[in-house]
Amino acid sequence: MRSIEEMQKQKPISLRGVKYNGSSKRFYQNVGIEECPETGDFFLLLAHRKVETPLKNLIRIPNEALAQAIALEWDSQLTYIKPHSMPLMHLMTITLDHVGLHRDKMVKSMMGYFHTDSVCLRDDQEDSLIKLQRKFWDPVLDYLKVSYAVKLNTTEEGTSSFCSPSQPTASQENMQRLIDSLDDYELAALDSLTGLSKSLAISIAILDGQLDIKRGWECSRLEENYQMRRYGVVEGAFGHGIDIEYCRMKIAAARTFMNLLGYNRLGGGSMNKSG
């Protein structure tokens, strides 16, 4: 039987063969972390061996808190490995495998929401929904304007919410500058949030901590939740429940990722009032 020292000297385990559909069996017994004495960051260990991402980047985690959380995700896997149940690991993989290679493409994709941001497309018929959009979304727009000089126009009452309003050139330039200033970890989190909410404004407010998990979820799903309250919730495997929990999980993961990394971008008053 090989000793732990011998196993640690083996080449890293590659995650390339772990299938995202959850059909890969758990192949390890022990999960741990190991500090790198030269850099102070941490390696993820499975079966006492270091781990590589699908693109063969050695998983190095910048601090112990995040490393322990990711190790816990791996240790929580049972008979089969369910990648969708490890959102922190997913964000770490995106950071290591994709941001460096595809940063420009990711930024371009996120900036694509600038002219179609969901918080700018307001309903023009239902008064109760219009009031909710003002209550939840206007503070987000105010935050961007005050904090980053990004002023976003919304569709005016009486016009179709399907026609995106024109946005100031200066606001677009400031938004571009803001996204360009993010480091790889922040960009990975923002990319996840933007793809979920279809809103750069909401995603930045969550990233900055101006919206907590609950309020961020409410803002991201404002119209869907309104429709569910009005027409009812569809139950079952293909109902609303999966989408609701998936959205909550992704927002919580992005916010937790930032918290464990020690990021604190919060400035001014938050928008997390109940109601």
Describe the structure.
The chain has about 280 residues and is an alpha+beta fold. The protein is about 50% helix and about 5% strand. The chain contains 10 helices and 5 strands. It has helices spanning about 5-10, 65-75, 85-110, 125-150, 170-180, 185-195, 200-205, 215-220, 220-230, 240-260; strands spanning about 15, 30-35, 40-45, 50, 60. Strands 1, 2, 3, 4 and 5 form a 5-stranded mixed beta sheet that branches. α4 (about 125-150) packs across α7 (about 200-205). The chain starts with a helix and ends in a 14-residue tail after the last helix. The model has no long low-confidence stretch (mean pLDDT about 90).
Q: What's the Cα radius of gyration?
A: 21 Å
Structural class of the secondary elements? alpha+beta
Query: In DSSP terms, counting alpha (H) and pi (I) runs of 4 or more, how many helices?
Result: 10
Largest sheet data: 5 strands, mixed
Rough shape? Answer: globular
Question: What is the share of helical residues?
Answer: 40-55%
Order of helices and strands: HEEEEEHHHHHHHHH
N- to C-terminal separation? 60 Å
Oligomer: single chain
How much of the sequence is in beta strands? 5-15%
**Uncertain runs with pLDDT below 50, 5 residues or more?**
none
- pLDDT averaged residue by residue: 90
**Strand segment tally:** 5
